[in-house]
Structures are given as C-alpha cells and as structure tokens.
User: What shape does this take?
Amino acid sequence: MEVHAAFDMKRLRGIYWLGLVAAIALAGCRKDDEIKVYRVAKGEPSPQAAAPVDPHAGMNMPPPGAAAPQAPEKQVPPPPAASKSVGTVPEGWQPGGGSSMRRASFKVSGEGGAMADVSLIILSGPAGGAVANINRWRGQLGLKPIETKDLEREVEMLETKCGQAMVADITGIAPGVDPKSDGRMLAAIIERGGATWFFKMRGNAEVVGKEKQRFLDWVKSVEPAEVESR
Assistant: This one.
C-alpha cells in the first residue's frame, strides 16, 4: 500500500508540473497574439499649385470672366541695365512700373482719373500664337473667342523697325471692372529672332482711343538695338 501511495504522489506531482508548464506556455501565446496598435504620422498635405500668371498682362487686374490663361512661354530676361523707356516717347506719357520683365513701361492719364498702361515684353518662342493670345485678351475684356479663319479681319498689319507687326484693337469690358482703367486694348505682336515681342496699351476705352495713333507711332519708332544690345 505504501508503494502504491508513493507512486500516486509522483504521478500527481508530474501532472501538476506538466499543467503548470502548459499554462505558462499558453499565457505566453496569448500575450504574443494581442493586437498592437501603432500611431502613424500623417504626411504633410501637398501645397496647392500656384495659380498661373499671365506673363504679359497689361495691368494687375484680374477682371471677372477672364479666359483661362495659356501656359506661359519662357520669358526672355532683360539685360541688367534695360531701360523702361525706348523709342520716341509721346508727349504726356509718364514712366510706368510693373514687372521687371518689361523692356518699356509707361502710364497715360486722362480726365477724371481715367488711365491706360503701356508695356513692351518679350517672350521666347511663339508664346502661344496670335489667335490664342487674342482670345485670352478678348476673354479678359468680356468677349467671345474668335476662330483662326476670323484672324485676318480682326487685325491690321504694321511695318516697324523691329519687323512686321500684327495689331489687334479689342474693345469690351467684363462685368464689375472699373471702366476708368479698362475697356480697350491695343496689342502689336512681332515675331523676331526666335522670340515674340508684345507692345500693349490697355486701359480706359476713351484714353486708348485718343492715344491709338501715338501708340502705333511709338511702336514704329523703337529701334531693335535699343532693346537687344543692352
């Protein structure tokens, strides 16, 4: 009897230790199986793309209803000492400000605060082409676009010292725009030396109308060397 009792005690101890080891192993498995949650920092939001800028807009005015701008061509930077005054400047035209890309810049004043802005800007390549530019300007002045077949009746040709110019005379005004500073635009476009020259006058319709001939005379007076050799 004593032998059987001793044997039973050994069996019980073995079962106890076996159960303890199994319990420890099971607990370890459960610990490893726990779901772990990690916080992942969100990436910084992407900055919005900068709104396209019209590289040869007349004045800094975004009129309502403006047509979507064309992709700007690469601007031809002016020489360090480029002048804001070239050609034979008409009497009454005052030096103007604006972008540093301007080769020439003037302002013209009329009665009652009316005004117009004059500029010469040069862009490399075709700069989008005549029709695309004219349609963008028409959109800024609240007008519908034209088709390529209509271009001939919308422009006149002008011989200048810088080459033949295509001159557009556009009259119109978008809703909400101040007529004292907008309403008509003259643009002379010249393709020269792999670049496009834009002579522009934009502003009050009456002022631009009175200055049209003097604007054209100024365009014809500009010597290429005045701009290209500086």
Notes: Strands lie at 94-95, 104-109, 115-124, 155-160, 163-171, 183-192, 195-204. The first helix runs from residue 2 to 32. The helical segments are 2-32, 130-140, 151-154, 205-221, 224-228. Residues 1-30 form one domain.
